[in-house]
Design brief:
alpha+beta; 5 helices; two-stranded antiparallel sheet; single chain
Length: about 140
């Protein structure tokens, strides 16, 4: 959550700074600014304590007036996996508002191989037990 909170608070500011630079010097296209904003945000996120065990997916939708036409730019970038990952969890805020990241991981790690098919159900059940009233969905993919 630390990383997603960082992105929520800072990615748009980083993009605004990149775009301001373009508007001032006029040498770089908007798509490059979006790419640079993602790169800067990624480098900043790598400095956060949570970066070792967590990540996030970020999306940008930017509507600009260019030559009296509205132009929509959309882009996204997602988490990275490394060789140490044995699974990943895709879940909505109904899960993440109730379960800490490591608690969710620990629940999945505690499952026997024969119980892996119920991994998503385990996460949903744990969120319900913690009192989630939001929509709750989860997918666990074993690598």
């Amino acid at each position: 959550r630390e990383i997603s909170a960082y992105l929520q608070e800072n990615l748009h500011v980083t993009l605004e700074n990149e775009l301001a630079h373009v508007d001032n010097v006029g040498r770089t296209d908007v798509a490059t600014c979006i790419s640079r904003a993602f790169i800067v945000a990624d480098m900043d996120c790598c400095e956060l304590p949570a970066a070792e065990n967590a990540g996030s997916t970020a999306a940008i939708a930017l509507l600009r007036d260019e030559d009296n036409h509205r132009v929509l730019y959309a882009a996204n970038v997602g988490d990275r996996l490394d060789a140490s990952c044995s699974f990943f969890i895709l879940a909505c805020d109904g899960v993440w508002d109730e379960l800490e990241d490591q608690a969710a991981v620990d629940l999945i790690l505690a499952l026997s191989e024969s119980d892996r098919a119920q991994a998503a159900e385990v996460l949903v059940g744990a969120a319900l037990e913690e009192g989630s009233c939001d929509n709750i969905s989860a997918i666990v993919v074993f690598l």
